[in-house]
Design brief:
By secondary structure, the chain is mostly helical. Helix content is 52%, strand content 6%. The chain has a two-stranded antiparallel ribbon with strand order 1-2. The radius of gyration is 17 Å and the shape is globular.
């Protein structure tokens, strides 16, 4: 029920609005945290244990995964390069370079630009090993990405847990 009715609303167009502020991440993550707490057999388990037992990812991890899939599609020219990412191939695989910030971007504007899709997506993409980002088909990429992400603990930003960049 949750996967069909609630999660699609929380994830709709998440590449456009993906939150940056920890308080916003917590607020969205708390929807899933509260829902999973009410399921039978989940009483007494912390959020991470509930996610693991239900075979779910945190909403933050899912947004990061969507972002990486979108960058892969951009690299393979399946979607427009609206973030103006520049791709370079080297011994580490494919690297994404976001467009430079304009000279006038200072203070709050620079923070907003830094938190936008391009820089965030490039930062995540550049953390992927070559065996992941050099995959030639979307199915292989998703499988390799899932395997790679499973090596990191899914650390959602929720009340009582430290904020950690999970990938």
């Amino acid at each position: 029920l949750y996967k069909v009715l609630i999660r699609p609303i929380l994830e709709y167009c998440c590449l456009v609005w993906s939150p940056v502020k920890p308080s916003d991440v917590k607020a969205i993550e708390n929807v899933q945290r509260c829902f999973t707490k009410r399921l039978d057999g989940m009483k007494g388990l912390d959020y991470w244990a509930r996610l693991q037992k239900l075979d779910l990812m945190s909403l933050q991890r899912r947004r990061q995964r969507y972002m990486l899939i979108h960058v892969w599609k951009t690299y393979h020219e399946l979607v427009p390069n609206s973030a103006d990412l520049i791709f370079q191939t080297n011994r580490l695989g494919v690297r994404a370079i976001p467009p430079p910030f304009p000279y006038w971007a200072e203070g709050k504007r620079a923070n907003q630009l830094h938190a936008s899709f391009g820089p965030r997506a490039a930062h995540l993409w550049n953390r992927l090993p070559a065996e992941v980002n050099l995959c030639e088909s979307l199915g292989l990429f998703k499988a390799a990405l899932g395997k790679f992400l499973s090596t990191f603990r899914d650390c959602p930003h929720t009340r009582g847990y430290p904020i950690v960049d999970s990938i």
